[in-house]
Design brief:
Layout (H helix, E strand, L loop, with lengths): L3 E5 L7 H8 L2 E5 L7 H7 L2 E4 L18 E4 L9 H6 L3 E3 L5 H4 L4 H14 L2 H9 L17 E5 L3 H12 L3 E5 L10 E2 L3 H7 L2 E4 L13 H5 L5 E5 L8 H10 L2 E6 L12 H6 L5 E3 L8 H20 L2
Parallel strand pairs: 1-2, 1-3, 3-4, 4-5, 6-7, 6-9, 7-8, 9-10, 10-11, 11-12
Helix pairs in contact: 1-12, 5-7
Length: 314
Amino acid sequence: MLKLRLLIAETKGFSPAALAELQEHFEVTLIDIQRDALEKALQEYDVFWFRLGLRIEAKHLSSTTRCRIIVCQATGLDHIDAAACQENGIKTLSLRGETDFLRSVRATAELTIGLALALLRKIPQAVAHVQTGGWDRDQFQGQELLGKTVGIAGMGRLGKITAQYFQTFGCNVLAYDPIPFDAVGVEACPSLENLVSRAEIVSIHINYTAENHHVFNDTLLSTFKKRSVLLNTARGALVDSMALIKYLESGHLAGAALDVIENEHQHQNSALIAYTRLHDNLLITPHIGGNTRESFEKTELFLAKKLIAHVTAP
C-alpha cells in the first residue's frame, strides 16, 4: 500500500527520533516553505506539519485540497482557520488538551521568568551599553522579584507552573481564573479587575478565543496598579496594542515584556515594535516561548506517535 505523503514545512531542528518514526509510516518530505507556496503544498500532500511560522486561512483551502491532516506542535491554534478546515474535511492534530504530556513542557513558563528579570533588571539595555564601550552600572539600577506581588491571569497548566516559579523567587502570588483551581499558597481573586488592581507584576496565561479578544483593553489596563508591569507569553490578541502603548507612554504602566504580539505575520507593521525603537520600557521577543531544543524533541516525538496512531486506527 502506498504511504501517505507528509510535508514537514518548518524543518530547522526537527527531532531525528520523530523523523525516524514518521519515515516508517509516511513518505516524508522536508522543505521550509514560504507563505506563497502554502496553498500548493496543501494540494500536493496528505499531511501538512508545521509550527507557528505560517497561517492557514480559508483562502488556502478548496475542494481540490489534497491535505486531510494538519499537524501543529502548539496549544494555541489561532493561526489555523478551524472552521475552514472542518468545512473541507481536514483534521487538526495538536497539543491542545494533552494535559498529562504538557506537564513536562515548561519552556514558556521559564521564558516568562526570564522576561520578568530582563525587564526589572534592565538586562538588554545593560548588555547593549557594554557592547558600545560603556561600564556605568549606575544607569541600570533595577528591582528584585523578592517580595513582589504577582498576578497570574489564567491558572491552566502554564499559569500554575509560572505561579510556582514566582513563588520560588519569594513572590506573593495572586491568580484569577473563571474555573476554580487549587494551587498551594496562591490567593484566588474574584475577578480579573481585582487581580490587576493589586499586582505589581501581571502575567498572562489565558487561551485565546474570539470571545476574549482584547480582554486586556483600555478599561482593564486603566485599573492596573500604578507603576506595575505586564508580561504576555500567551497570545498577542489578548492585549489591545494601542491601549498598551497609551499606558506605557503615560507611565501608568512601568513596563511590559511580550513574547507575542497581534498579527505576528505582519510584524513589520506593528505599532508595538515601532514603540520599542524609541522607548526602553517595552521588551519584545519573537514568540520564542516554546522554542527550546528539549521542547521540540518532546513535542515532535509525541505528535509523531499521535499522528501514526490516528492514521493506523481501525
